[in-house]
Amino acid sequence: MAIEENPFQPYCYSNLNFLLQKWYQWLWATIDKHVPGTTKHRSKLQPWISSQTSHLMKQLGTLKRKREGFNVKLELNFAKAEKKLSEASLEDQKAFEAKVFKIDDSVRYRSI
């Protein structure tokens, strides 16, 4: 009955190392699929990261988990998300520095 359902399996399960490797691949794929990933909590992020940038970080992590094989659309979305995250993080840092240090742009770039 089992042969009729799966007539050909190209794996040799008598090799225990190979069997264990396949089992771990299946186990980690199942865990990655069903167990929620960990997220960075606000207390562990830099103080200048805004909630919008934190949300972008979570979206990037989701895209990173989704791309298993090579998929052009996912790769482009991932690249766009990385770029958006880096720009948002830089803007957050600039805003934080300006708020904390009360930096005036006209003073910052004035030559002496």
Task: Provide a descriptive summary of the structure in words.
The radius of gyration is 24 Å and the shape is elongated. It is 65% helix and 0% strand. The longest helix is centred in the C-terminal third of the chain and has 30 residues, at 72-101. With 112 residues, the protein is mainly alpha-helical. The chain contains five helices and no strands.
Structure described in brief:
It contains 5 helices and no strands. Helix content is 65%, strand content 0%. With 112 residues, the protein is mainly α.
List keywords for this structure.
112 residues; mainly alpha; 0% strand
Itemize the secondary structure elements and their pairings:
Layout (H helix, E strand, L loop, with lengths): L1 H4 L10 H19 L16 H16 L5 H30 L3 H4 L4
Helix pairs in contact: 3-4
- Portion of residues within helices: 55-70%
How does the overall form come out from the CA principal axes?
Answer: elongated
Low-confidence stretches: none
Radius of gyration: 24 Å
Oligomer: single chain
- Average pLDDT: 76
Tell me the number of helical segments per DSSP (H or I, 4 or more residues long): 5
Question: What characterizes the major β-sheet?
Answer: none
**Total strand count, please?**
0
Strand content: under 5%
Q: Give the topology string: H per helix, E per strand.
A: HHHHH
| Broad structural category | mainly alpha
Head-to-tail CA distance between termini = 87 Å
